[in-house]
# Entry
Amino acid sequence: MRTLDTNYVAVGAFVLAGAAGLITALALLTGRTGSADMYYTGYDNVSGIKYGTVVSYEGYRVGQVEWVKPYGEKGKPRFKVALAVQEGWEIPEDSVAAITSSGLLAAVSIDLRAGRSETLAKPEAVLQGASSSNMMAVVSSLAGDMGDLTQNGLKPLLASLLHYVDTLGSTLEKTAPDLLANMQTLSKDLSKRGPAILENAESLSGRLSQAGERVLSDKNIDEMDKTVKMMGELKATKAQVDHLIAQLNATAADAKPSVAQGLTDLNHTLRVVSSSIDSITVNMESTSRNMAEFSRRIRDNPGLILGGGAPPDEAAK
# Structure
């Protein structure tokens, strides 16, 4: 009877040990080996994110994804992701939960990139999410861009080039004989006239060289230096003239009231002379008559100048 009881105890202990090992293995496989704090984040795309996806903090594994749930935000689909992080792990509240991949074919994971805030995020807090930047997504985007470039850029460009090549080919096919004939004629003319052209070119070059030597002679250079100096003096003279004109303008501006007063006085004088011009004219006419009478009498009797008497009183007659 004692032997039977001993066997039951051994079997029970074996079963308990197997169950404990199974639970430990499951915990290790799922990444849950103890209590965890829950944090949440959100993404527009959760490709490769599922239950059990590794959650790391600056590359160090600290937990796993618990679940992924879709929801809408401003008419756009979004996905809420629950992160089970090792209990008590300190995470700054401005940390970013970024979807990353360590290699081209490696599984994606969520890496918590530490922020600079001194305030720690509390459990159940929502962390900022960053979209995936793994190599496959980049390659996929690049392939899409290349396909778009090929479809909308290269194909129309190749079609245009082929059209131009066909057009140019047909044109050359039609005009090539005449073009070759003209080129042969031109080549023959050049071969005949080439020596004369070269001789003329050499002559022209020699003349230009001589002209240059004459232009750049020491005498001309001295004259040009003098001209340059004279231009500098003319600039100084121009500045002086400008200064003088400015002074004259200033003087004219200062004298403007005096000139206006002079014109006013002249106008007054002219009006006085105009008002007295009739009497002046009468007096001048009387004077002219007296001078005529005096001249007549002097011609009749020149002795009147030396001892002439008083003229007879015409009124007494």
Remarks:
- The first strand starts at residue 36 and ends at 43.
- The radius of gyration is 60 Å.
